[in-house]
Amino acid sequence: MRLIIVTGLSGSGKSVALHMLEDxxxxxxxxxxxxxxxxxxxxxxRSPQSQYQLTAIGIDARxxxxxxxxxPQQVAELxxxxxxxxxxxxxxxxxxILKRYSETRxxxxxxxxxxxxxxxxxxxxxxxxxxxxxxxxxxxxxxCNVHQLRExxxxxxxxxxxxxxxxxxxxxxxxxxxxxEADFVFDVRTLPNPHWEPxxxxxxxxxxxxxxxxxxxxxxxxxxxxxxxxxxxxxPEFARSNRSYLTxxxxxxxxxxxxxxLVEQLAAHFKQHYPSVLxxxxxxxxxx
Length: 288
Prior knowledge:
Layout: E1 2-8, H1 14-23, E2 27-29, H2 37-46, E3 54-58, H3 65-80, E4 84-91, H4 94-104, H5 117-133, E5 137-140, H6 146-160, E6 166-173, E7 184-187, H7 208-215, H8 218-240, E8 245-252, H9 258-270, E9 277-281, H10 284-287
Parallel strand pairs: 1-3, 1-4, 2-3, 4-5, 6-8, 6-9, 7-8
Helix pairs in contact: 1-6, 3-5, 8-9
């Protein structure tokens, strides 16, 4: 069987993730008390019912702190016993969550008369930190809409179901901050910037004119070759350590030209060796 524990910050998209997993034929249970997790898992593992072969469990911060702290240990024990169990943690930055709660006018599960929304968000981060630190996959939904998050969940979960390491290459803008879910982050802002070239500023690293411009610069090709060599060495190390997911982030100033170009080039290279290579462009995908 395959068991996915879905958790994360309220307002980061946990419900969207569970609904997507339900569409992928997972048996989903939301808001289960963390203290009952061992008994529930014992029940579904021993059950002869095929409906539990794919199971997703939602856990949030409305649990005793001591019960939350035990979840990583319980997951580790399940893995040692041979159960394919992984933790999916969703997060977003504070501004994004504040905006989402303002738009929906929902009440944060930890907010009270003496605790405002911002303090409730920080308290939730503190409570869930033990799970976040042991998560197999962290997805930052700050710049994702509902449809993009559903597709990302589908791609990453489905690709890993084949038993292969799921690799995500993503471009981002340093103006918007570092992606919190990345295993490797590379800064390529020292490379020649097509933004300042006539006719290229409105294009992206996927357009042939930008590709030709960057291909013509030796420094860009040195960076590309260095990244290939580095990742060719370290991706197999991640695979050998039984990691399920690997996220590689490449950033430039605007997240539109250099980082996009390098992500596309690296993805084309590593798709020849690994069957589960995905691409995400934080800025360009929002320009569509």
